[in-house]
Design goal:
- By secondary structure, the protein is mainly beta.
- 10% of the residues lie in helices and 31% in strands.
- It contains 1 helix and 7 strands, in the order αβββββββ.
- Strands 5-6-3-2-1-4-7 form a 7-stranded mixed β-sheet, with no helix packed on it.
- A hairpin with a 2-residue loop joins β2 (76-83) and β3 (86-93).
- It is flat.
- The two termini are 65 Å apart.
- The relative contact order is 0.11.
Length: 162
Amino acid sequence: MKNSVLIQCLFGAFLMASCNNGPKVIAPASEDGNSDKGSGIFSSDPATQVNSNSNTPFNEDLHKVSVLEVLPTERYTYLKVNEDGKQFWIAARKQEAKKGEIYFYRNGLLKTDFESKEYNRVFDTIYLVSNLVDENHSKNVGALDTNVPKMEQKAAVKEDIP
């Protein structure tokens, strides 16, 4: 009996001692931006600053191309394009593309001697593009279609179910 009381007292003392390990308090920074005990996440120290992934302007590496030829496949669309007088091929995910239309893309991956099994053709150079955007992609954003029939709201009917 004495041993169990002793064990309970030791366990209680252990619990009380461990309660002092509360959450860490981060002191606020002073007016000059420095803190004696801070995490450093809001400091002006360049070593602890979080920077965005891209410091490049939006239009850097933005390509505007006009389509000269379209070769659709089951998974991809191959496009022969013209950009500032240069003609080259790009491959994008399968999508509708028309000759003469303007498209935008960024960050194409250059591949050489790229083989298209569907066309039994090897492209000397081709750019693999993850996102090809039509020049007119935003013309209908937010436009309401007035021809859509309005939904009729039905009145709630109370039925007695035995």
